[in-house]
Amino acid sequence: MNGIVLFDGECNFCDQSVQFIIKRDPKGYFSFASLQSEVGQDLLKKYEIPADTDSFVLIEGGRAYTKSSAALRVCKHLKGAWKAFHLFAIVPKFVRDFAYEIFAKNRYKWFGKKDSCMLPSKDIRKRFL
């Protein structure tokens, strides 16, 4: 099973992160859904993640990963030097997630918020659930 990335569809940074992943995932390993979508909410429920979560989520191999663990696992599948970021998984999770949470709490202030999800081009639309 390929990876499914759940992202905050209202966050400009999250939208840019999805675009970043798509450009570095030429084999199309990842599919995408916003946390706010029906598909996103169904997946959160299935994997017993609170419905009000606003964290980056990766579903892969029958498991759900959140926060820094999700981001680092995504890096492992990207082309180029981005794979090397997966090495940060050796940093204790509580340290990684502390930094992640500081960033996440400020992402709207730093990058802004939008009213709706972006509309992907036809060739990329098939990767959105």
Q: Can you describe this structure?
A:
The chain has 129 residues and is of the alpha+beta class. The protein has one domain (3-115): Glutaredoxin (3-Layer(aba) Sandwich), CATH 3.40.30. It contains five helices and four strands. It is globular and about 40 Å long. The model has no long low-confidence stretch (mean pLDDT 88). It holds the Pfam family DCC1-like. This is Thiol-disulfide oxidoreductase. InterPro entries: DCC1-like, DCC_oxidoreductase.
Short description:
The protein is α+β, with helices and mostly antiparallel strands and 129 residues long.
Keywords:
alpha+beta, four-stranded mixed β-sheet, protein-disulfide reductase activity, DCC_oxidoreductase, DCC1-like, Glutaredoxin, globular, 129 residues, Thiol-disulfide oxidoreductase
Rg computed from alpha carbons, rounded to a whole number of angstroms:
14 Å
Class of secondary structure makeup: alpha+beta
**Second-tier CATH architecture:** 3-Layer(aba) Sandwich
- Total E-strand runs: 4
CA-CA gap between termini: 14 Å
The ordered string of helix (H) and strand (E) elements is: EHEHEEHHH
How many domains is the backbone divided into? Answer: 1
Pfam family, one: DCC1-like
Protein name: Thiol-disulfide oxidoreductase
InterPro entries: DCC1-like, DCC_oxidoreductase
GO molecular function: protein-disulfide reductase activity
